[in-house]
Give the backbone structure.
Amino acid sequence: MDFIQTVFTSFVALIPVTLAQSLILAFVVLGIMIPFRTLNFPDLTSEGAFPLGGCVCGVLLASGASPLTALAVALIAGFLAGCCTAFIHLRFRIHTLLAGILMMTMLYSINLRIMGKSNLSVFGAPTVFDWAPFVQPGFPFAKIIVAGLIGAVIFILLNMFFKTEKGTAIRAVGANPDMAEAQGINVWVATIGGVGLASAFSATSGALMVQSQGFADVNMGLGILINGLAALMIGEAIVGKQTVLRQLAAPFVGAVVYYQLVSFCLAAGMPPPDLKLATGLFVLAMLALPSLKRSRGPAQARETIRE
Amino acid sequence: MLEIRSARKVFYKGQADEKVALDGLSLKLATGEFGVVIGSNGAGKSSMLNAISGALVLDSGQILINGDDVTDMPVHKRAIRLARVFQDPMKGTAASMTVAENMLLADLRSKKRTLRQGLNASRLATYKERLELLGLGLENRLDTRVELLSGGQRQSLSLIMAVGGSPDLLLLDEHTAALDPRTADIVMKATVRAVEALKLTTLMVTHNMQHAVDFGHSVIMLDAGKLRLEISGEEKAKVTVVDLIGHFSVKTDRMLLAS
């Protein structure tokens, strides 16, 4: 009984901090979802775009730029990184995953070049979270409000965009590129723009994270992709993915639930080094589930027919 | 109007398995003309359609639509002028999107896509009207995802999508070949109705000799990447399935002699 109570109190105490963190990381999950689900372009760039956004933001904050400028420049840098990945895939016909690996490997050096060292403290620099209404700056609630507001605005804008004529065209490229092309849609522009946009969100997440934690680190992207995928799977399991609205809500819902789950596991005494193994196994299980279900159903039926 | 001027395309050039797909093919299709293309497998029918749509880049030769040279235009630019229905029902529609969204994509084929809302009430009403003509009940399933439709329904949808914007040129690539006879008949009838009503310049590839006899203003027979035979006007009206098959067998005899 005592154990459960300790676990519960430490978990509850961490809820606001975890919520703030998950709302910031929801943008990476969004940056993973857009290429993966909307463009049918499995993309790994986010693993490099997230620290890219962080490093760009860190350097700008350290040199005295306003937090909003730092955020904007990080966003543009992420956009360009995503464009490069899509271009590598389209121009040289390199597999999307390999193009992503190439890009994130190259970004590691670029990130080091940008910062000049492997980590940079920007503690005390002004952040976008200082402008939160109603609450004292510095508390998790300030982060929850600011990250939540940005998230809400992006969610509403994207939901509107994907229902416009241009947005529908971009979704068509993911659904059937040959058909999209035959309907007069420029597949190159749609893919480069879409993957660029997704990486811009990943970089924004990195920039917000740096402003939140007060330092930038070249290794801050390590494992972000698998965490994001796990969050996406959870979100899709909860809200589904049948409509544009649900598909867009999945990253946000998934991020919030996933990071609370992780926090609970840690509070319950799971050793932190095991976290990645557990996350990996979870993603594997989620991805394998449909094929396991299928092989149990029709496969047997086929065998009976053969007999 | 469609004009192909001495189109040439060689696959695997200079290699042991070099294959001449189009061998100086020239062809003219007048505005409003419905041409039916026949020919054995490997005669160059698909290569010709791909070359017209832009999916295949020619080694030499020209393609003109309504007098404009489109030879160097990419697929998505040519789409402003031409529409295509593929043999595979999966190819012509976006499976994970709804019937209405697919109609919207086709509707915008030759227009500039804006940041305005895609599906609005007036568009939905138009799509409903167009789909009603098919008599398949698709007009009541505008919000259904296309992957839930049958092959015949998908192909009918592809057809309605293709003829919707009255394209300068309609390409039909064995578009009833993958359907059961009854559905094939429905789709074929809908095709003829649309082509006649809108006076579309149409090029239809088929392996069905009865279709070649029954429909279209002219029969075009391809062989080894060249135009072998063109029957039009009075002669086309009198042609029978046996006549057409006769032309095939001549070719087969020659092939036998040559080998």
